[in-house]
Write a structure and sequence with these properties.
The structure holds 2 protein chains of 2 kinds. By secondary structure, chain A is an all-alpha fold. Helix content of chain A is about 60%, strand content about 0%. Chain B has one domain. Classes of the chains: A mainly alpha, B mainly alpha. The interface of A and B includes residues 42, 46, 70, 92 and 199 of A.
């Protein structure tokens, strides 16, 4: 039995399935278009959730209950939730900009996307062109879940493990790139902070304020120590030290 | 009279006429609503009793109508829509919560096959071969309600509550799913009615040479899974001590701060329905479902047939709801980092090790006894060696105060001598000596 004959035999779709399809298919399309069209990133993610939910129901309707529910649990429940988590952290006002930040990014994305789709499509078509469909009864002979498990853990175990290794590498890589290492020993607790404060070379008392014993009350004028030296710590580091000349400090003659 | 024929199988579902389906659906929905009405009352009464106060007792017998009155009042309150809210999402968030919480009830087996108006039908709305996954999907979708409610409110505290809820779901769903894996391994099915049926058998286990007729309930057979599962569903339903998304001492009311009127009522409803649904789920997976507990089945053969099982089912659900309330009345809320550490560093590794042990044990059940003992001994030896040679993580002993002082580098901030004896102030003595006679004279002159 070839794919064509199976499709022909399945021409009579049960009423319930048809109704489900005609209700959910437009919804899935609306979700897919809305995901691209939505300006707000969270709305975009929610539209994708809608499409994924519809796809999950389609799988269930087409006698693949396990894959349908796993689609909902894993993709909709966990992965999209992670997406939402990040989007919400970014902020609710954030919507995508019309200005291209990377030059030629959109054209490149379009070309690469279409190219990838074409590559996968041709590969699939050439691989599956001569194959015959086994039919649902044979695939589900020992139960739907058991059948998937048998294929996954015998014939496709290498592909499965490779995919999971790839995912783990991506996750660990993202973590390494984003994570700032702070080891437990590097963390300063209260007693360590105090010890650092009284370490030789560090003055533990409060820093002198600017302008104390200085010739002016400006924040840029450093304080003077009792021996007449300038106290460097008394001015903020970002300000240039400004010593007033004798001319600056003389009376301007504005006082009455 | 045989009782095995009462067990529904997957083939028994989908045979009902439409009116029977309608009755079952309405019953499950009404059960959810009624459970909320009574659940709120029950919780307030029980927490009240635990706090040595009466709780609601004015409206109706034992205050039973209090929740109904509160619900009516809530419906007539003003519905406030914050100006910064995302209107569509704000409206749909509570709806998502309620729909998901109620949908999960549809695969809960309330009882075995019964006869309704001449139709032999199982006391369960429906069942599919993967209905446990359906419940998981519902519970993971229900969090969208919480997260979106927090985000759409357009205000800070709800957003924080929503974020917490998202992180909480992702962490605790892993532990939840893994503890169900053990149930799948023993029962060999993912349908709820199948799991209840599997718990009716008393498996003959060979345990180090002894043949034991083990109890059928997975709460006993898979005790670690049961404990982890229950902790995880408390986290999943946002109940105390894991109610961080709505922690009133930190986030006002968390994700529902901006909600009012009927929308708030819907959030409240979904929370209690989720609690009841999860209790029913626990009963189904671990506590034998609708089966009567042991002493009853010993004295009474008919306990597991007809409509009686519904009573046992509701009794067990009530018991678990009581545990939920008990936890709330007893435990303080966890800090957020403690909560995350519990999920990822305790529950998850424990679960994995337990599944590994269980799988190994199940796999070796058919082996020769000598082979099995050798394998167990080898594993025990490896574990022992690893524990013995595990690198010692204990920090070096702390130096004493005297050592620390002696090891200070030159030019350190000056310290007073450690054996410094502060001499008594010469003035102290004189003040006391001067005061004493003055006081004595004062009291004497008044008392006499």
């Amino acid at each position: 039995m070839t794919t064509q004959t199976v499709l022909a035999a399945a021409g009579s779709v049960p009423g319930g399935e048809a109704v489900t399809f005609w209700i959910l298919a437009p919804l899935a399309l609306i979700g897919a278009i809305g995901m691209v069209a939505a300006r707000n990133a969270v709305h975009s993610a929610l539209m994708l959730v809608l499409t994924m939910l519809c796809l999950g129901v389609f799988y269930v309707v087409q006698a693949g209950p396990f894959i349908g529910l796993v689609q909902i649990i894993v993709y909709t429940g966990a992965i999209m939730m992670l997406f939402l988590f990040v989007l919400m952290l970014v902020g609710r006002g954030a919507s995508d900009s019309v200005i291209e930040t990377l030059r030629g990014q959109r054209v490149a994305a379009l070309v690469l996307g279409v190219g990838f789709a074409g590559l996968v499509g041709t590969g699939m078509y050439r691989a599956l062109a001569g194959s015959t469909a086994a039919g649902l009864a044979q695939a589900n002979a020992e139960g739907n879940v058991q059948g998937i498990a048998r294929l996954l853990f015998t014939r496709y175990v290498l592909a499965f493990e490779l995919t999971s290794a790839l995912l783990i590498t991506a996750a660990v890589g993202a973590m390494v790139l984003a994570h700032i290492e702070r080891r437990r020993e590097d963390r300063m607790d209260q007693s360590a902070t105090m010890r650092a404060r009284f370490r030789p070379g560090n003055y533990p008392g409060p820093k002198p304020g600017p302008g104390v014993f200085a010739t002016s009350s400006s924040v840029a004028t450093p304080a003077r120590l009792p021996d007449g030296r300038l106290a460097e710590q008394s001015t903020p580091e970002i300000l240039p030290v400004r010593e007033l000349t004798a001319e600056d400090t003389t009376l301007k003659g504005t006082e009455k | 009279m045989t009782f095995l024929a009462q067990e529904p199988t997957l083939a028994d579902f989908g045979q009902d006429p439409w009116w029977l389906v309608l009755i079952k659906v309405v019953f499950a929905f009404a059960f959810g609503l009624l459970a909320t009405l009574l659940g709120v009352w029950f919780e307030r009464r029980v927490v009240g009793r635990m706090a040595v106060r009466p709780g609601p007792n004015q409206l109706g017998p034992f205050g039973l109508l209090q929740t109904l009155a509160d619900g009516m009042k809530m419906a007539f309150k003003e519905d406030i829509l914050p100006r910064s809210a995302d209107k569509v999402v704000y409206f749909f968030a509570p709806v998502i919560s309620v729909v998901c919480a109620v949908t999960a009830l549809s695969v809960m087996p309330f009882g075995p096959m019964v006869s309704i108006f001449g139709h032999q039908t199982p006391l369960q709305v429906t069942d599919v071969s993967v209905s446990v996954l359906l419940v998981l999907a519902c519970s993971s979708m229900a969090v969208y309600g919480v997260v979106l409610a927090g985000w759409a409110s357009g205000s800070t505290y709800p957003l924080l509550g929503g974020l917490r809820s998202a992180a909480q779901l992702i962490s605790y769903e892993v532990a939840l799913g893994l503890s169900i894996v053990a149930v799948f391994m023993l029962s060999g099915t993912m349908s709820t009615s199948g799991i209840v049926a599997a718990q009716g058998e008393r498996p003959q286990l060979e345990f180090f040479g002894f043949d034991i007729s083990a109890p059928g309930w997975y709460a006993i057979l898979l005790f670690p899974s049961f404990v982890i599962f229950f902790i995880a569903i408390v986290g999943e339903t946002n109940r105390a001590p894991f109610d961080l998304p709505e922690a009133e001492s930190e986030l006002v009311a968390g994700f529902m701060t901006e909600y009012s009127s009927l929308k708030f009522a819907l959030i409240m409803l979904s929370e209690y329905v989720a609690m009841v649904t999860m209790s029913a789920f626990t009963v189904t997976l671990f506590l034998g479902g609708w089966r009567a507990p042991w002493p009853i089945t010993y004295f009474w053969d008919g306990a597991n047939s007809g409509w009686w099982p519904m009573l046992w089912f509701f009794g067990k659900v009530l018991l678990l709801v009581f545990v939920f309330v008990w936890l709330r009345g007893t435990l303080p809320r966890l800090r957020y980092d403690q909560f995350m550490r519990l999920g990822w560093k305790v529950l998850l590794p424990l679960n994995l090790v337990w599944i590994l042990v269980l799988a190994g044990w199940l796999k070796t059940q058919g082996w020769e006894r000598a082979d099995r003992l050798i394998l167990y001994g080898a594993i025990a030896g490896v574990v022992l060696i690893v524990t013995l040679f595990w690198p010692n993580r204990q920090p070096a002993p702390k130096p004493t105060l005297a050592e620390e002082v002696n090891n200070r580098p030159a030019g350190s901030f000056p310290l007073p001598p450690l054996d410094l004896q502060v001499p008594p102030s010469p003035r102290t003595q004189r003040i006391v000596a001067e005061r004493e006679p003055a006081n004595l004279a004062d009291t004497d002159s008044r008392e006499v």
